Amino acid sequence: MVQTLSPMKIAVCIKQVPTREWQPRLADDGRSIREQDASWELNEPDAYALEEALRLREAHGGEVVVCTAGPARAAMVLREALARGADRAIHVEDAALGHADAMAVGAVLAEACGGEAFDLILTGLQSDDQGYAQTGVVLAARLGLPHATIIMDVKIDGGRLRVKRELEGGWFQWVGMPLPAVLTIQSGINQLRYATLKGIMAAKKKEIRKAAPSAPVTPRVEILSLYVPQKSKRTEIVSGGPAEAAAALVKKLREDARVI
Amino acid sequence: MVLVIAEQRNGTLNRASWEAIAAGQQLAAGSPVTVAVAGAGSEQAAKELAAADVAGVIAVTGAQVEHYTADGWVAAHAAVVASVAPQWVVLPHTYQTRDFAPALAVKLDRALVTDCTGIKTVDGKPAFTRPMYQGKLAADVRPLGEAPWLVTFQIGAFRGDQAKRGASPANTRMDATVEAAAIRQVPEEPFQEARQAVDLSEAERIVAVGRGIKGPEHLPLAQALAEALHAEVAASRPICDSGWLPMERQIGSSGQTVAPKLYVAVGISGAIQHVVGMKGARTIVAINKDAEAPIFEVADYGYVGDLFEFLPALTAELKK
Question: CB count, 10 Å around CB of A87?
């Protein structure tokens, strides 16, 4: 298929989340985490969204703008994205955004993206922290743009999008829609690139524009309590050295569980 | 009053619809429950749903809701919500719900709580339990603002067979008056990519590997264990994304759902997207270096330590 090549102005909405290795500790209020103990990284599905945007820019030309709504610490993931190849960044900064729900974050991002006239807005399908899986769709609805979610392939031809939606259980579906549009990207859509030293140096000269929400961040969901989940099962831990533990486990699987 | 939005395709109900009805009945606590189901085949699905102990079933029909589109579903269900005027709108947390429910909430300007696993009463009012931080923590949350509040429930959080049956409710039909021009998505026919050459749902034993395996060069350790157990090899999503094992061996919400006699989770942290695909296993063994990994919440047996030492020891023990 011949693709019409016109430059694309692409936004990627990203979030800073605690790392996968982070061991949660709760704050004294019992409703949030102890942020000072957390180490942070770029939300993994957002990394795939960024990579997809960089590939679309390579194919069509144009600009990739990364955008985050978060407290001051979130600037770290913007610099990371600039080092991977994004052209510039927008940081909507507010302390209340650190633990805001998806409806609140989507509203703030819509305000930040609204004036930019992006052709395409990408974000990850959900965040590894609160995991509401709403932000991208809220953003689309707020901007009045069409959207599709859990996307595994993006094609652009003649000013129209054709995207591959993942359904459940190994099913997929192609969906067409006009540009501009919002897509939420599934992990695994591409192979990620990482920042090079050259990229890190170049990022230092790139712009991070700061903005503030025009109105106070309004929560739509209240966290009443946050806690370590209760186990649904009692786990019998086999202990000892590898050989000893293996022998104990095989005995239990044969004699108690009777599954081998 | 609770409105449950059920899901069906060509007359076949998504079984998560019955789970949503069970959740809706619990939340209603005796007040009426109405079920809405849209799309081609919705009238047939509505007949099946009429077995439920609910006040009414609405089949939402019309040219613009024949096939699923986000725009069509938002417009049609906004009209259903306006007509039913519920306190709560309950949906199963399926991929389709994830595609349209947040836009429906924006259109209604109401709060939406997603991926809930339970309903509690806190200070005399409903609150919802949901996983946070990849299942490392759980939260009790409450939607704010005015009714109706939208809530989605995780697949498997409620049991469909425990939805109360038997009121023989009135079945009604509602025409979705949606203009064709209002629908911007053009859907094509769903398809299956990989021939499901391996039907893992039939496997009696499964050895599944996750990020902890570190690289494809270590897969033979898991394969040797699987051979000794007469088990199939499967994986969590990141392993298939990296191409270390084919997509058709993926367990979880985007892969296969399995319920074997024995499930051995090797280096799998137990993110909820994986756990929904395997928590029906009769016996679950978790092998992980992190004693706090959420996989231990569903495991019957666990080994906390280095899988590279433990797998060979376990394989050797089985071969004795």
Answer: 16
Which one of 3.40.47.10, 3.40.1010.20, 3.40.50.620, 3.40.50.300 gives the CATH number of domain A8-211? 3.40.50.620
What's the CA gap between B33 and B20, in Å, rounded?
11
**Domain identity same for B137 and B241:** no
CB contact under 8 A, A229 and B141: no
Reported as half-sphere exposure (CB side, CA atoms, 13 A), residue B80 has a value of: 32
Predicted confidence (pLDDT) per residue in B38-81, tens digit: 999 999 999 999 999 999 999 999 999 999 999 999 999 999 99
Average pLDDT over residues A14-29: 93
When pLDDT is cut at 50, 70 and 90, the band that residue A2 belongs to is: very low
pTM of the complete model: 0.89
ipTM over 0.90: yes
For the four alpha carbons of B16, B20, B25 and B27, in that order, the dihedral sign comes to positive
Number of structural domains chain B divides into: 2
Do B115 and A131 count as a contact with CB atoms less than 8 A apart? yes
For an interface test with A, give the residue of B113, B227, B275, B279 to mutate (most A CBs within 10 A).
B113
